[in-house]
Amino acid sequence: MNEASSVPPIPIKVINPVRHSAQRRVFFFSCVLALTSMAIWLMADILWRGGLTGVETAMLALFVPLFGMVAFGFVQATIGFFVLLKRGKDKGEIMVTLPSEEQDLSQLPATALLIPIYNEDVPRVYEGVRAMFLALKEAEVHRRFDFFILSDSTDPNKWIEEEVEWIDLCKQLNAFGRIFYRKRHIPINRKSGNISDFCRRWGKCYRYMVVLDADSIMEAKTLIKMVQVMEANPQTGILQTVPQPIQGETVFARMLQFAGHCYGPIFQAGLNYWQADNGNFWGHNAIIRTAPFIEHCALPSLPGSGRARFMSHDYVEAALMRRANYQVWLTYTLGGSYENLPPTMIDCAKRDRRWCRGNFQHSWLLLAQGFKPINRLHLTIGILSYFCSPLWLIFLGLGILQYHRDEARTIQPFDADIGLSSYLDVGGGKLAWMLFIVTLVLLSFPKVMAWLLIMGNRAKRLSFGGGFRVTLSVVVEHLFSALMSPILMLFTSLSVFFVVIGREISWGTQCRDAGGVDWPSILRAHTWHTLTGAAVAMIAYQINPVFFLWMLPITVGLVLSIPISALLSHEGMGHLFSHIGLFCTPPETNKSPLVAQMEKRLEAIRNELPPPEWLQRHLGIAQVLLDPYINAAHVSLMRVKQKLTHGMTSYYKGLCDRLLTGGPEALNRRELLALLRNADSMAFAHDLLWKMPNRLLPTWWTMAMRHYNILTSQQKSPLYR
Amino acid sequence: MDLSLESISLPPWDPARADDWNEAYEKVENYLRACRVGSHLQRARLTALVLQRVHDRLQADPSEGDQNIPGTAINEVRNRIEEWIGHYLPQQVTQGKSISLGNSMLALYLGDGPTRWPYAFLDSANLPNELAEVIRARIVRTGPDFAFSSMVPREIDLGLMPELMESAMESFEDVPVLRTVFAWCIFLGLLGFLFWYTH
Description:
heterodimer, A: alpha/beta, three-stranded mixed beta sheet, 29 helices, B: mainly alpha, 2 domains, two-stranded antiparallel sheet, 8 helices
């Protein structure tokens, strides 16, 4: 293990990136305000014909935050566009402080790489760790970085798989003492509790910690530069990188991946423009100064009788770090930071539902004492990003009602030449068109600007597969995102509704067909979208066929939600798109050796013959009871033996008896976990299982013993997946 | 254990307990396979030796004959393994504690003992020095050492927000009926509004 580094930080500052940040913010928010107020004026002018009714007032009130968010995104992208258009380094970016001269890498301070996991795809996690470890070793800095796999897994089989893979990985890389595995028996406070637990036990040993997600990896040079930048900026508490999405297989994942690579940079540059040192923490792929984090970022429980914990801890930690006067930066130019994306729209909705709940908890903090205004804004934007969906839904509903009412009264409000339209010398109808087009432009133009940036640079163009492919990809992505928007709106609105009434939504387990499409889930998730879309279309047609046409952008996506979702979840189509170069991204054309190595190994693992399904379901339990080495490893990794009361001893003995005489199915997950946590019971169960005569064993165990023979005869790895 | 080929001899045939001996053979062989003893020959030799020992013990103490023979055989092979690894780590001590069989087994596995030296497994007579070194080097120590820090959550002064939200939210969250009533109110309100607005 690295010792706590005594190497003093070297404060070398070339340029101060915080300079002019106040002016930048004033300019940015002035632009947002100007755009929003003009649009509100137009909207008010359209609605204000014959006086504002209750519904019109409500529509106008809803229009303010909805258009505000659109204008916010547009201004951010436009400014980002001009920042990127400028030649040379962005002087408002933290990376300008990176010393240009070569530094002695052996003097890097001790840094911990934390990988909190919770019932994850174990091979993916460990192959990521392997790739990063080898990259750091190649850069000859692996002695300055320690890996901590921090598990909160509640699946007994995953737990054993994690332990076994850890031992195997350390064995193969000779990395004992560099890669550590810790399993928390009681996963208090989820991910943030897991990180806090690390900080309390080992935080003092490391000046920095890099927090990764289970599916994220980072290049060695990125990690080194992050540490160097932190060293050069002692007042920086958190440095957040932009994780680049990779490894998308389905159409949906590939499309998001493309959008991230193509449109992401202008939004990130714009974001950095106004937030500067008041950045945010996104929960992973970021480096954190450990001491102030321990000092200032321990999260209290939320108010209320349940004393709930923050589910989305990252924004709060950034706000607490800022409150302690440490800077929080985003670096969008660093690169070499990767993550995976949800493969389907339904998975994306599930993730959003978790985030939605977490973000809504932030409403407690909006008036918290000592928080910086920008952090309050981050929290507000986080909340609004979810609230906008139900607001849009209500806005649409009110719009339908208003249209119906006007039709019923045969009022043609747009023909009246009053208000702003009289000065502009245009009719009210044209004014409505104008607002519609302005909104469309604001929504679409950032994509055009991003496309222009790529088309204007040959290297970039080629990295996206060439001019034709990138253009086609932008068009197809735009079409799909337009179709998906109303579906995602309904998903998020439902999530918001359930969060408000305090209900959980059950999604069921996945059941994919050969193409990777999970039809039962798709039908369950989208049938009501289809019905809603059909109902809205019918109502609109009843009101007025012209209105029906106006509603088509909403209704088409909803009515076709099932085939759209199936198409987007299809891995075969994703591969076809990849083959023809649609949604091609730079990491695919210039594959990083780090990613390539990880993918190659994962491919080999997935090609291995898996054990039969009945055994695979409880493979961890079978391994830990049948395999002398795995049992020994598990028992060795348990805590020091504790003295048990007579009642506890009987309880564990009862569990052992049931496990051995009834097979793993005889115990539920909690009981299996309880048994796994008790080292003596596991050693006893292993011994007893082998000693029991076959006639007393259930078929499951006798079959498992026979199959295990075959598995152990494969000499590739003991981790038969 | 003497692992010369001459040492291989199965216990005398006992038709009365043939099934028990067969099961004992199968279990011991499976256990050795689980220990990654990949060589068929080595497994056969070791299994025969273990069964011979069990047989000898039963001869010496016939009361043991009532016991389950496969279980006794597994016990024998586990004892042999413990004894054999003990040879490699006679007095090794880590942090004042004796190394357990579990740790030794782990060290054996990490050193690829059974794979790299398949014919040395359980062979006390011919101990390769390299294997002993590998096992000693592979003893895993848990770590890293703790360096405790105090990370105590401090209450955040939430300003006016708790007063604004707390009482309403608490009652709302604690009474499930209220949640249901709220959902129904929204639905009925929507219906009523639609009726009023369209008439």
